[in-house]
Design a protein that fits this description.
Blueprint lengths: L4 H18 L11 H26 L8 H24 L8 H31 L2 H19 L8 E6 L1 E4 L2 E4 L2 E5 L3 H10 L1 E7 L2 H7 L2 H15 L13 E4 L6 E5 L6 H9 L11 H12 L1
Helix pairs in contact: 1-2, 1-4, 1-5, 2-3, 2-4, 3-4, 4-5, 8-9
């Protein structure tokens, strides 16, 4: 045992705890299986080790060892590919799919959380080495707080107003408010849709939100989360019972139509509001005007 043994053990423990803290299972049900969690905890342990040994390397001025972090970055990029491939395979068996945009967002999140583990371990170990263990603990708490802030993205309720609207038929056309959803001609199927169907209107708060919810991947994420939380009244080979989200071309509102097994309006409003704003769906056309204004000056 030398002077670096305890700081290294401390850094690895803090990094692994940080990964466990970020590994949460909620209504989206991923990852729920034990082996999936073991994979992510093991990768978090490796990331913690890499972040921790960088501290003693800096203290000994062994800067070549820092280059191993770049090698780690390429390895963790493989984590993103693994998650993308796994979720894409599973998605084909979902009654309401996540969609590629949602899957890519999840894959990026899993990759980025390993970098946050490296950051937490590195900061904690350096604080331990330079000052003492109490400084290391304080640095670990601050790093975990920063990691928690960075891993929490925006939610849909931040950019849209959500309103419940009973679906209705006009002839064979199914509408949510005045937004056309689809055509259903069979009277029996219409009765089924009116009995189980629920409609919601997403009203964008600004121009940026209008462009963001226009993204097909963002809309599919709403349908998937809603169907996961409340269940879905459909089976394979029933196209008339597929949940859909259609856009009003005039004002950018989005009409959401679903057939849940649990008709709980308040819970549905909460679930829609908590749908993450997907990074790949975010658009900010207002920033273009700002940049043009700055350039003109």
């Amino acid at each position: 045992m030398n002077e670096y043994t305890l700081p290294i053990v401390f850094g690895i423990a803090i990094g692994t705890l940080s990964r466990l803290f970020m590994l949460r299972t909620d209504y989206r049900q991923y990852p729920t299986y034990l082996h999936g969690k073991i994979i992510h905890v093991a990768l978090g342990f490796i990331a913690a080790g890499l972040g921790t040994v960088a501290g003693p390397a800096i203290m000994e001025e062994e800067f070549t060892a820092i280059t191993f972090l770049t090698l780690a970055a390429s390895q963790f990029r493989e984590v993103r590919n693994m998650e993308r491939n796994t979720l894409t395979e599973l998605d084909s068996y979902e009654l309401v799919s996540r969609g590629k945009t949602y899957i890519e967002g999840i894959a990026i999140a899993f990759e980025s959380r390993n970098y946050l583990v490296i950051f937490t371990s590195l900061v904690s170990t350096l604080a331990y080495l330079i000052f003492n263990i109490w400084a290391g603990i304080i640095a670990a708490i601050i790093a975990m707080f920063i990691s928690h802030k960075l891993m929490s993205g925006g939610k849909l309720k931040d950019i849209v107003e959500i309103e419940y609207m009973e679906p209705r038929f006009d002839g064979a056309g199914l509408y949510v408010d005045n937004i056309y959803i689809m055509n259903i001609g069979l009277p029996e199927r219409q009765k089924e849709v009116l009995r189980y169907g629920m409609g919601f209107i997403l009203k964008p708060k600004n121009m940026n939100a209008r462009s963001t919810i226009a993204n097909l991947g963002q809309r599919q994420a709403v349908l998937h989360d809603l169907s996961t939380a409340l269940g879905v009244y459909r089976d394979s080979g029933t196209p008339a019972l597929v949940p859909l989200a259609k856009r009003d071309l005039d004002d950018g509102r989005v009409g959401v139509f679903v057939l849940p097994q649990e008709r709980d309006i308040e819970r549905a409003l909460t679930v829609i509001g908590d749908v993450p704003t997907l990074e790949n769906a975010i658009r900010m056309p207002s920033e273009k005007k700002s940049n043009e204004g700055s350039g003109a000056q």
